[in-house]
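How it folds:
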Amino acid sequence: MTLEGSVDSAARLLLGMRLVRENVVLRITEVEAYGGPEDSASHARHGRTARNAPMWGPPGRAYLYFCYGVHWMLNVVTGPEGEACAVLIRGAEVVSGLETVLARRGAARATPQLCAGPGKVAQALGLDRAFDGHDLLAPGGLELRPGPAPAVILAGPRLGIAFATAADQSRPWRFADGDSRAVLRRTALLPR
């Protein structure tokens, strides 16, 4: 499995892939691409820091950050080492391990929105800072595995980046499985 190439191409390739941790398997349904230091929406826009160091590679590593002091967010590092490209995992569907996911999420029942949102994905997988920099392509811990690509891919602008330049805000770098209900703000997305 290769995650090199343009970050937006890698983001589309991640749709349908599986995230596996212990008995939990999630199918990726929504992602956002972040293109390194030249992308004003990226955590790499101010250069390499202790916080964003995993973004700089190698590809296939996890980059986790704590958002608003509330949620962990999982990104998959892509592109050549040193370019600081990463793809945020915005949504997923539960393939197996539903009882574990319900317990981790504090939910009473499964709904299409159970893992729709990046904080929900990390919570469903039980992730924290210990997984920052983890090799997702190696067996053990948290793994990224192949899965069937979606039949229809939707695309649109990324969410929550009002601080970015207008050009970066308008990039259609949010991608989603057009047949999945585990997608946030679907109306802002168009077939790709």
Remarks:
- The helical segments are 7-14, 98-105, 118-125, 166-170.
- The beta strands are 18-21, 24-35, 62-67, 71-78, 85-96, 142-145, 153-156, 174-177, 190-191.
